[in-house]
Amino acid sequence: MANELELQVQQLENQLKKLQGKQPKDQLSIIVFSGDLDKVLAAMIIATGGRAMDMEVKMFFTFWGTSMLRDKNKSPKGKDFMSKMFGFMLPKGSSKLKLSKLNMCGMGTAMLKDLMKKKHVASLEEMIATAAELGVEICICEMSMNLMGFKREEMIDYPNLSYVGVGTYLSDADESKIQLFI
Amino acid sequence: MTIEELKSLKSDKTVDARSMACPGPLLAAKKAIGEVEEGQIMEILSSDEGTKNDIPKWCKKQEFEYLGSIDEDGIYRLFLKK
After folding, report:
1. How many A/B residue pairs have CB atoms within 8 Å?
2. In chain A, whose CA is at the least distance from the CA of B22?
3. Domain chopping of chain A, boundaries
4. How far is Cα A35 from Cα A89, in angstroms, rounded to an integer?
5. How many CA atoms lie within 13 A of A90 on its CB side?
6. Cβ(A150)–Cβ(A87) below 8 Å
7. Nearest CB to A48 within list B19, B21, B27
8. pLDDT (tens digit per residue) in A5-23
9. Which 55-114 residues of chain A touch chain B by CB within 8 A?
10. pLDDT above 70 covers what percent of chain A?
């Protein structure tokens, strides 16, 4: 009888341990798919806000989103023709992103940036610097980099940056309480 | 706390986040709270109306005691106890 009880307790403890391991962490995972200025701004505000809330924050940049992480002052050598073309057509860094609406050949974007300054909203560049300071982790989709022909040498200097695949995103998202796709 | 009680409070730390837009005040509060000891009172000054809703929620998450706010001509004074 006593043995049976002990066994049951043991089993329950094991199950509890398993469940505890599956409990989502106080973590926020954001996929940044878009390369539009407005959407990326929203993503950065949520990410830095998350750090203020003491959450772990991981941002996954994929597809058009990767353009934000290019450094406008770096020009890597040895690209093939298609990569060069893509590199030329896509925005070179955060300062070159455009609004998803009302861009009006760049006039809308310029007006928004001006308004942001007037209303004391931090610029995208300032927000990236704040994110770095606060420890927001940035992961870049390796496949997108290859597809767009971006080289690692042309990406911004960021303290917490890594190149990953979908598996990393999924396992991190699995452990996160909040997941966003922007 | 009533407005009078809040007005008579002596803050151990004041964060001036006036003229900052979201998420500025929250980030400023987060930065400053590290210098505040448990039991001490911190005051946040903000002109951003959203902060008035954000800070109580931030306090709840961080397990600080939110004491209340005073509205002084568009400047909000928010009080919390660590």
Report:
1. 30
2. A121
3. 25-181
4. 13
5. 26
6. yes
7. B27
8. 999 999 999 999 888 877 8
9. none
10. 99
Q: List, run by run, the mean pLDDT of 10-residue segments along chain A (182 residues).
A: 87 90 89 96 96 95 96 89 89 94 92 93 95 95 92 94 92 92 97
- Kindly give the interhelix angle for A107-118 and A37-52, rounded to the nearest 10 degrees: 30
- Domains, chain B, in order of start with CATH, read 3-81 (3.30.110.40)
Q: How is residue A63 written in tokens?
A: 């597809």
Mean pLDDT of chain A: 93
According to DSSP, the β-strands at A161-164 and A25-32 are unpaired
Distance from CA of A137 to the nearest CA of B (A): 17
Q: Return the bridge partners of A27, or none.
A: A56
pLDDT in tens, A66-99: 999 999 999 888 888 988 888 889 999 999 999 9
Q: Is the pTM of this model over 0.80?
A: yes
Q: How far apart are CA A145 and CA A151, in angstroms?
A: 7
CATH class of A25-181: alpha beta
Residues of A in contact with B29 (CB under 8 A): 52
Distance CA A130, CA B27 (A): 9
* Cα B74–chain centre separation: 15
Q: For residue range B18-76, what is the model confidence (pLDDT) as tens digits?
A: 988 889 999 999 999 999 999 999 999 999 888 999 999 999 999 999 999 999 888 99
| pLDDT attached to residue B19 | 86
Tell me how far apart the alpha carbons of residues A125 and A73 are, in angstroms, rounded to a whole number.
Answer: 14
Give dist(CA A162, CA B6) in Å, integer: 47
Mutation target vs B (from A112, A120, A124, A133; most B CBs, 10 A cutoff):
A120
For residue B59, indicate whether it is catalytic.
Answer: no
